[in-house]
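Subject: Sanity check before I submit

Could someone independently write out the structure tokens for this chain? I want to compare against mine line by line before I put it in a report. The sequence has 567 residues.
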Amino acid sequence: MFESKEIRGSQLVLVVDDHEINRDILGGILEDYYDVIYAENGREALEQIRAHINDLALVLLDLIMPEMNGFEVLRYVRNDEQMRKIPFIVLTAEKSAELEALELGAVDFITKPIDMHEVIIARVSRIIELSDGKKLIQAAERDKLTGLYTKNFFFEYINRILKIHGDELYDAVVLNIEQFHMVNALHGREFGDKVLTGLANAIRQFLAETKGVASRIESDRFYIYCHQQEDYHALLNRFQEAVNAIAGNTGVHIRMGVKTWEEQEDPFVMFDNAVTACNKVRGDFQNPLMIYDENMRIKEIRDQELLSDLDRAIEEHQFQVYYQPKYDIRQSPPKLASAEALIRWNHPKLGMISPGDFIPLFERNGLITRVDHYVWELAARQIAEWRDQFGIELPISVNLSRADVFDPELINRLVRLVADNHLKEKSLKLEVTETAYTDNARELLDVIDKLRSSGFEIEMDDFGSGYSSLNMLSDMPIDVLKMDMKFVRNIEENKTDLKLVELILDIAGYLQLTVVAEGVEKEGQLQLLKDAGCDLVQGYYFSKPVPADEFQELIKTEIENERSRQV
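---
Independent answer below. Compare away.
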């Protein structure tokens, strides 16, 4: 027998029977073990269920009753998402009614007349225990916000699909909401939750039309394993329209990555590939869909090889620092004023690798700081070497990645580096990209303020390539503004571009910022920039990036020119 003290107050049972004597008998059997409430007919039963929807552990339901019988109750409950989670044991004296009741959702039956009290307690206890276990599984199985599967259950259901439908074509689809953290920041978490649930509902509706399962994997990432679709652009548009219906004109965008079915391919690998494809179109609002292909697979293998080779590349000095000169065009002829350090990778097997291939890779994987430190060391030594050789401490600009900012030893490292090489802090200029500023991380701005206080000059690189506006410049802690080459490219042919350059130069002058124009290739561009009041330029008009031994020839030429000017 059960000890009532272990059960009372923790489980609530509803007894539904139109005969008082049957209610009394069942109540007498159960009340030592459970809290019991009663109903005389089906309508009263539904009222009690609604009133105690979150507390009911079980319903004992008579089938033959006036007003509303047990069959009608079961039919009603079957169509109610909350009520159908409660287990029902039916009470009946008719054997023929048992099968129909089970088909309507009942989990067990007790035959009238009611006797064998121990058997009834055992059955009720077993059903409640099974129901509690099922509720625990369901709680772990579903994401609380969207109702989609959690990650572990999602992949378990995929395994079941593969066992049953292994010969059918299923694709892996990944959906992401662009800059979802900004959606929450701008419009509030409640709005963000509505977007998530709206997208989840659209996914559920899609899966109701085809075979498949779906999961909310992370805050704004959804996985869908579904029958192969003919047109994924149409599917993405369908999901985007569902988001638009909720978000209105707030500009919430989604992107999609797809990995199509291949025989015997592991589902985890498929979704890893789909994530890679989805990440490839991050921020691309014109083409927000990418389908993983063989070229991407080859690039992934190559990227992994580059990541694995980083340590050896640093040890063996495979990385080479090239220098591109910057000329002061306020003087005539233009004077060599400084240089920018640019890294190249001379890989023993792959040959010369463009920084555009490995810099973003190392940034994504948190390894860019190691490359930056390597460049800083070489650049500082090079400044010292040229100073000792030519008597000129020519400043060199090096990149300061966003990841470097979170290094607690950053300032000490840089201060120590210039001290070890007996340099002025202004000789090692620090370039930070515009996008790092526009992320508006307080910590980044605080660190840059401290670097400037330590004597370092800060250059904003690629100004105009991101989303900053001219009026933001006054709030940004910088000394030098590097104007992106896209401003310079068409200034000879396009008056609007020229006016924009002139506007930037006027504002920078007012803020006492030095301006460097990048990408100068033609004499006409140089003359227009000079007339507009630009300070320095760099680009192929003067020199492409070159190794240190070639750059020092430019220093020698500058020294000769300086001597000529003095004569």
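---
OP: Matches mine. For the report I'm noting this point. The radius of gyration is 36 Å.
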